[in-house]
Amino acid sequence: MKNTNRQKASAKQKAVRSPCINVCSLDENDLCIGCYRTGREISYWGRMTYKEQLAVMEKVRQRESDSGFVS
After folding, report:
1. DSSP alpha helices (H): ranges in the chain?
2. How far is CA 4 from CA 10, 39, 51, 71, in A?
3. Alpha-carbon dihedral 24, 69, 65, 54, rounded to 10 degrees
4. Which InterPro entries match (predicted)?
5. What letters, b where the CB count within 10 A reaches 16 and e where it falls short, cover 19-42?
6. Percentage, residues of the chain above pLDDT 70
7. What is the Cβ-side half-sphere exposure of residue 31, based on CA atoms within 13 angstroms?
8. What is the pLDDT of residue 9?
9. CB neighbour list of residue 20: distance below 8 Å, 6 or more residues apart
10. Eight-state DSSP code of residue 67
11. Which of 39, 13, 6 is closest to 24 using CA atoms?
């Protein structure tokens, strides 16, 4: 049983930190102007796997870069 508890703890540690910056407003393309996630990505974030969260973060980086608001 100890091994199972360690696996659960390990899974919890393998969460990606949310990119939320508390500027929550979706634009006309359903993208948050603060974190560059879609409404769906925001709502499912806590239920996503580690790999899914990493994939979203890659999309966030690309969207942020494409926005022209960051260098």
Report:
1. 2-13, 39-44, 50-67
2. 10, 34, 21, 44
3. -30
4. DUF1289
5. beeeeeeeeeeebbeebbbbeebb
6. 80
7. 14
8. 45
9. 34, 35, 42
10. H
11. 39
**Strand, helix or coil for residue 4:** helix
Residue with tokens 């603060």: 34
Q: What is the chain's length?
A: 71
Tens digit of pLDDT at every position of the chain (71 positions): 455 544 554 455 678 999 999 999 999 999 999 999 999 999 999 999 999 999 999 999 999 999 887 75
Global pTM reads 0.76
Query: Which tokens is 47 given?
Result: 């239920």
